């Protein structure tokens, strides 16, 4: 009987595979995971305009929920993922090593700690409750903010909450502040009038870099193709930054996430897109937040301290500046 | 015209009474929803700002707590400034019935905004396929195994303890594993539906099989029927109507796993619509989508019930429950 069940399950799996055209296929397009963050939605411009085809490279962008994209990357089901430098270390510590070959942006205000009415500065949070997704980027932002204000993590009580649900958490009145990124932070402020950002990533530019992290095997085997992908990025940045074409770019991006262009434009401000020339500077080895190395070191310390993973990661092995540097 | 007798122990209602009761089962919840939405003094814990007045942080269209609003009005009046204006409203999480109805209509009429986007009916169709295949695969395994477990004690002993154990494991927890094995498209989603349905299915069908009248089996054996014939000629025909009803219930069960299943891998189907709309707090669209799922589910069930009556005209319990 167990045999029957096994055969049946194999048949079932095959069936599902055949029906939906999966299974291993060789010479596939490069698969890149992306999710709802302005610096990544930006790629939609290149997708819709057919710029990858023009560049002679076959790329398929797959739309995910952010954490699902990391799962798929760890499982080796996509060749690259768009994620923060800190989260690249997290997925890498779990075996899903990714190499950051180019930067899309750094958060310039879109990540924020939002305080309820009456909370005006980080110092006001002493002894208060903060709703935050423990171990994820906003936690790092909060620690950074506390440190700057001369406080410690112990000075606040953390309430672990999914970032997606922080608007409801803040509106419930059971916490005094939350940490979230746009558009979630914006919704949180809309949901509780009078609440304001008390600290944003604009004050810690470079704490959170967003990068294209590529699977090492894919990078080795298809370096030429990745090179072509990277070159398309410059075109995307200039199309979005150019006032003449910005409206069209925003229209494409807003459509991807289901917002109106008017509602999407403000989100652009909080994300500083990095073109390749600017990226080269960030790829220079240095301490501190102006370098990807320094920023990742801080993220690594944070991850070890919060037991996201136990072993400090070898930062250098996660960064390969050669592709970005090879562009003109 | 006779008076309807509403309370008779274990007796069916008259057709007219049944119709009235059916209407009430939908009218009552909608009525409650309508009262909460349209009667201003029921609930309405927030105020929707129409004019910010002198309060600098308010904007038209914002919602704020009633008490906080009253505080701002009082403060403004005390300082002889312009008070803010607004009207009572419910939290954004509870839109009014007409808003949801309108969203329901427009959701189908709106073309996809993104170039690679999908129409809502395409997304729905995708979800229905996920459910269909998940349920079919689960049934291919679960129905025969369940019948065997109910008929022969040895199958029951071999498989049921493990099934009992496994059915408590939350299906979504297998999401990452399913992605690792089956990729990022529909494979892992179908797998979650199967995991969520199969183990309940085996137990429920085994139980149904055990409820078969023992005297039927004994009579067959006395008349010299072989072991396999008992299964094919007595047990299976005997339980078919109940099995059919179990399958109807289990299909509904499969639907409840849809949302978690579709969050795994690439976002697709009706879940893509629901989560994206919820992220930007368009809750009228979210409720419209929930309604669509409800309508599809109920619609299928009604159709299956009608088919069932045709298939098993001798089954009295079917008639009674309808």
Distance N terminus to C terminus of chain A?
A: 65 Å
Please identify the top-level CATH class of the largest domain in chain B: Mainly Alpha
The most extensive contact between chains is:
A-B, 53 and 50 residues
Instruction: Provide the structure class of chain A.
Output: alpha/beta
Give unreliable regions of chain A as ranges. 16-26
The spatial strand order of the largest sheet of chain A comes to 2-1-3-10-4-11
- From the 3D structure, determine the CATH topology of the largest domain in chain B: MetI-like fold
Corresponding CATH superfamily of the largest domain in chain A: Periplasmic binding protein-like II
Quick one: overall form of chain A?
A: globular
Proportion of strand residues of chain A: 15-25%
Quickly count the domains of chain A: 2
Helical content of chain A, roughly? Answer: 40-55%
Q: Predict the CATH topology of the largest domain in chain A.
A: D-Maltodextrin-Binding Protein, domain 2
The biggest sheet of chain A amounts to: 6 strands, mixed
Quickly list its features.
heterodimer, A: 328 residues, alpha/beta, D-Maltodextrin-Binding Protein, domain 2, 11 strands, globular, B: 322 residues, mainly alpha, 2 domains, three-stranded antiparallel β-sheet, 13 helices, 68% helix, elongated
Kindly describe this structure.
- The complex is a heterodimer of chains A (328) and B (322).
- With 328 residues, chain A is α/β, with parallel strands linked by helices.
- Chain A folds into 2 domains: 27-107 and 207-326, 3-Layer(aba) Sandwich (D-Maltodextrin-Binding Protein, domain 2), CATH 3.40.190.10; 111-204, Periplasmic binding protein-like II (D-Maltodextrin-Binding Protein, domain 2, 3-Layer(aba) Sandwich).
- In chain A, 47% of the residues lie in helices and 17% in strands.
- Chain A has 16 helices and 11 strands.
- Chain A has a 6-stranded mixed sheet.
- In chain A, strand 6, helix 7 and strand 7 (157-160) form a beta-alpha-beta unit.
- The longest helix of chain A has 19 residues, at 223-241.
- The termini of chain A are far apart.
- In chain A, 53% of the residues are buried.
- Residues 16-26 of chain A have low confidence and may be disordered.
- In chain B, helix 4 packs across helix 11 (269-279) and helix 8 (214-222) packs antiparallel against helix 9 (227-256).
- By secondary structure, chain B is mainly α.
- Chain B has helices spanning 15-38, 66-78, 97-109, 120-151, 153-166, 175-182, 186-210, 214-222, 227-256, 258-262, 269-279, 283-311, 316-321, and strands spanning 46-51, 63-65, 85-89.
- Chain B is built from 13 helices and 3 strands, in the order H-E-E-H-E-H-H-H-H-H-H-H-H-H-H-H.
- Chain B folds into 2 domains: 46-89, no CATH class; 107-321, MetI-like (MetI-like fold), CATH 1.10.3720.
- In chain B, strands 2-1-3 form a 3-stranded antiparallel sheet.
- Chain B starts with 14 loop residues before the first helix and ends with a helix.
- At the A-B interface, helix 1, helix 3, helix 5, helix 8 and helix 9 of A face helix 4, helix 5, helix 6, helix 7 and helix 11 of B.
């Amino acid at each position: 009987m167990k045999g029957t069940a096994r055969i049946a399950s194999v048949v079932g799996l095959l069936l599902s595979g055949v029906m939906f055209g999966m299974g291993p296929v060789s010479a596939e397009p490069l698969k890149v995971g992306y999710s709802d963050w302005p610096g990544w939605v930006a790629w939609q411009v290149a997708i819709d305009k057919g710029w990858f085809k023009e560049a002679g490279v076959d790329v398929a962008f797959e739309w995910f929920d952010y954490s699902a994209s990391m799962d798929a990357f760890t499982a080796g089901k996509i060749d690259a993922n768009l994620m923060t430098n800190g989260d690249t270390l997290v997925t890498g510590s779990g075996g899903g090593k990714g190499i950051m070959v180019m930067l899309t942006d750094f958060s310039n205000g879109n990540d924020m700690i939002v305080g309820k009415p009456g909370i005006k500065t980080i110092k006001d949070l002493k002894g208060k409750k903060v709703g935050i997704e423990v171990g994820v980027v906003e936690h790092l932002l909060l620690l950074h903010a506390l440190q700057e204000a001369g406080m410690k993590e112990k000075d606040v009580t953390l309430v672990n909450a999914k970032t997606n649900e922080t608007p409801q958490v803040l509106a419930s009145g059971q916490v005094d502040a939350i940490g979230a990124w746009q558009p979630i932070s914006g919704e949180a402020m809309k949901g509780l009038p009078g609440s304001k950002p008390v600290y944003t990533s604009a004050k810690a530019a470079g704490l959170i870099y967003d990068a294209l992290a590529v699977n090492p095997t894919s990078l080795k085997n298809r370096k030429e193709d990745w090179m072509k992908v990277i070159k398309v990025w410059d075109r995307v940045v200039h199309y979005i930054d150019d006032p003449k074409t910005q409206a069209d770019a925003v229209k494409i991006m807003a459509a991807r996430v289901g917002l109106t262009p008017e509602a999407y434009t403000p989100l652009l401000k909080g994300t500083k897109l990095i073109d390749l020339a600017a990226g080269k500077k960030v790829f220079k080895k240095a301490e501190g937040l102006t370098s990807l190395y320094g920023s990742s070191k801080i993220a690594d310390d944070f991850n070890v301290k919060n037991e996201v993973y136990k072993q400090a990661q070898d930062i250098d092995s996660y960064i390969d500046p050669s592709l970005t540097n090879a562009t003109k | 015209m006779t008076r309807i007798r509403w309370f008779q122990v274990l007796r069916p209602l008259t057709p007219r009474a049944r119709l009235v009761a059916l209407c009430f089962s939908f009218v009552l919840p909608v009525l409650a929803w309508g009262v909460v939405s349209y009667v201003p003094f029921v609930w309405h814990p927030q105020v929707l700002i129409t004019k910010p007045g002198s309060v600098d942080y308010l904007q038209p269209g914002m919602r704020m707590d009633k008490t906080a609003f009253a505080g701002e009005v009082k403060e403004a009046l005390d300082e002889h400034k312009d008070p803010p204006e607004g009207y009572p409203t419910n939290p954004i999480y509870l839109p009014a019935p007409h808003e949801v109805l309108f969203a329901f209509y427009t959701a189908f009429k709106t073309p996809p905004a993104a170039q690679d986007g999908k129409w809502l009916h395409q997304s729905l169709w995708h979800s229905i396929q996920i459910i269909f295949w998940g349920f079919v695969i689960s049934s291919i395994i679960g129905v025969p195994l369940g019948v065997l477990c109910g008929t022969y004690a040895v199958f029951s002993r071999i498989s049921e303890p493990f099934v009992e154990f496994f059915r408590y494991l939350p299906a979504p927890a297998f999401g990452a594993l399913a992605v690792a094995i089956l990729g990022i498209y529909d494979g892992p989603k179908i797998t979650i539906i199967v995991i969520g349905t199969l183990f309940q299915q085996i137990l429920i069908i085994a139980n149904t099989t055990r409820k078969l009248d023992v005297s039927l089996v004994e009579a067959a054996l006395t008349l010299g029927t072989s072991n396999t014939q008992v299964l094919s000629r007595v047990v299976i025909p005997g339980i078919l109507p109940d099995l059919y009803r179990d399958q109807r219930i289990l299909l509904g069960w499969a639907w409840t796993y849809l949302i978690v299943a579709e969050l795994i891998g690439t976002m697709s189907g009706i879940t893509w619509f629901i989560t994206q709309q919820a992220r930007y707090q368009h809750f009228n669209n979210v409720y419209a989508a929930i309604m669509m799922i409800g309508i599809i589910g109920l619609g299928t069930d009604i159709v299956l019930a009608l088919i069932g009556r045709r298939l098993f005209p001798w089954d009295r319990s079917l008639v009674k429950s309808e």
